[in-house]
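In this supplementary section we document a worked example of the pipeline. Step one takes a protein sequence of length 63 as its only input; no multiple sequence alignment statistics are reported here. Step two produces a three-dimensional model, which step three serialises into structure tokens for compact storage. The input and output of this example are shown verbatim.
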Amino acid sequence: MTNEDVQSLSPAAFKRLTGVRRETFEHMVTYLTPHLQRQGHRGGQNKLSVAEQLLICLSYWRE
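The serialised model returned by step three reads:
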């Protein structure tokens, strides 16, 4: 699921999918954004946004 698909879920479905509430997810994204942004750095740039990377990580941990 993409970030747009997940944002349209109900709060209960979002928590069932990710294991955290939407507010907690937004706090996690704002905390991780400065650490995961690679604009202007050497090497390859990220293909996924910070929110998508976090969704992948949380869904992996839920498995």
